[in-house]
Amino acid sequence: MKLPRLSPEWTPYVLLSPFVVLFLVFGMFPLGFSLYLAFQAWEPTSGLGAMQFVGLENFVFALQDEWFWKSLKNTAWLAVASGVPQHLVAIPLAVFIHTSFKRLRNGVVGAYFLPYITSTVAIAIMFSSLFSTDYGIVNTVLKGLFGIEPIDWLNAPENIKPAISMIVFWRYVGFNVVLYLAALQTIPKDLYEAATMDGAGRLQQFFHITLPSLKPMIFFGVTLSVIGGLQLFEEPFILTGGRGGSDQSGMTTAIYLYRMAFDFNDFGAASAMSWLLFVVVVLTWLTNLAFKPKT
Length: 295
Hints:
By secondary structure, this protein is mostly helical. It has helices spanning 11-37, 57-64, 66-100, 105-117, 120-130, 137-146, 157-184, 189-197, 202-230, 234-239, 253-262, 267-289; strands at 40-41, 52-53. The longest helix has 35 residues, at 66-100.
C-alpha cells in the first residue's frame, strides 16, 4: 500500500507545524491568557474559581502598591550593580585571554563559562554556605585579612542586595567573556599591525581599535544584561527562601509577582504587574536603543 505523497508546496508547512503548534500552545496562549487575566479578578482558592471583569482595577492597584514599587527599585539596583561590573570585567578579561592564550584558550573560556550552565539551585546553595555569618568562607577571609567582624550577609537588609549581585556577576561574567571573545576574532589583525608600526602601545590600541570595534557587541551584551536583570528571579528567590529577605530588601519584581499569585492568591493583580514589568523592560530597551552605535 502506497502512502500518499506530500505535495512540495505543503512540505515546509508540515515540517514546521510541530514547532508552530507547540509555540501557540505553550507560548502565545499563556501570553494572551495573562493579558486577559490582567483585567479580571480571579482568586482560585478552590478549583479554578470564577473570574470577574474589573477593568483597570488591577493596574491601578499595582501602581498604588508600595511593595510593587519597592520591588522595582530592588530590581533596578540589582540589575545595575550586577550588570555593569560584568562588562567592565568581561571586556579586558576577553582581551587578555585572546592575546595571551593560544593552545589553552578553549579550556580557559570553558572554565569561565561553566557557572553559566551550572544549576541555579546548586549555585545558590553554594553561595549560601559561602555567605554564612558564622562559618562562611567570605567572612573568614575578611576577618583574617582585614580584621572585619562577621557580616550578616543573608539577613541584614543592607547586605542582601550586594550578596545577590555578587552571585549574578559571578554566574554571567563568563557568558559575556564568550561574547566579547567572538567579537575580538572578527577584528582584522592588519589594524593592530599598522598601529604597532606607527608606535601605538597596547593601551592605545585597546582604546582606539579594540573598544570601537566592540561597540556592536557591547550594545548587544548590555541589552541582554538589562533584560535579564529586570527579570531576575532564581538567585534571589533561592537565596532568600522565596520571601525576599529581611525588610524585603532582596525581593525583585519577579519574586513579588510569584508571591502575589501563589502566596496571596491574586492572579489578576499578578498578571497586571507582569505587564507593567514588560512595559518597564520595553522602555529600558528603547532607552538603550538610543545609544546603539551606528554601522
